[in-house]
From TrEMBL:
Keywords of this entry: Disulfide bond, Electron transport, Transport
Domain Thioredoxin: from-to ranges: 8-137
Protein's organism: Haptolina brevifila
Protein name: Thioredoxin domain-containing protein
Domain of life: Eukaryota
Length: 181
């Protein structure tokens, strides 16, 4: 586990925060902003807080340029259940070092103030969607509803029977669909 308590004592690396804590996607500009918009927000229940996905990137990183837009799209489609915090490692090297970010892109999932999952590099779209769905599930929201039904149908139409079967089974397991099972 990564201890994040020491991060709030780090000096600011940029001007005071200007990001709104109600946005789904925020650019982190200082250690203080990281503490309030990521660590503390992930420890606060939704809709005010909830899980936070950390996207560590650099402007020169080509794989980051592929991954970040996909993450943004998935998080914006999550209707506020999860937040994406973009962290430029060149602007905040001390934060990247404190979190032991050694390669780019690195993505971490915080929930209840703790690191619960992470990956390095660019994942295939279906695995990336599952990562974001995990965050939505941690928020107490269903990675379900109409969008999950659409995804299950897309798997089926594409001939991906194992993923379609799993997606439909997950939908049936949701409390609102328990009577259908």
């Amino acid at each position: 586990r990564i201890s994040m308590r020491h991060l709030s004592t780090m000096p600011p690396a940029a001007p005071p925060p200007t990001s709104s804590n109600t946005q789904s996607v925020v650019e982190i500009r200082s250690a203080q902003e990281f503490d309030s918009l990521c660590v503390k927000a992930s420890a606060t229940p939704p809709p005010v807080g909830g899980p936070v996905i950390l996207d560590f990137y650099a402007d020169w990183c080509e794989p980051c340029k592929q991954l970040t837009p996909k993450l943004v799209k998935l998080v914006e489609g999550a209707a506020g259940a999860v937040r994406l915090a973009k962290i430029n490692v060149d602007a905040l090297p001390e934060l990247a070092q404190a979190l032991q970010v050694a390669s780019l892109p690195t993505v971490m999932l915080l929930n209840e103030g703790k690191l619960v999952d992470s990956f390095k590099g660019v994942l295939p779209d279906d695995q990336l969607r599952k990562f974001v769905d995990k965050a939505i599930g941690l928020a107490g929201g269903a990675a379900g509803g109409p969008k999950a039904l659409e995804r299950a149908a897309e798997f089926l139409e594409a001939g991906d029977v194992p993923n379609a079967t799993q997606a439909y089974a997950e939908l049936l397991a949701l409390p609102e669909h328990a009577a259908s099972a």
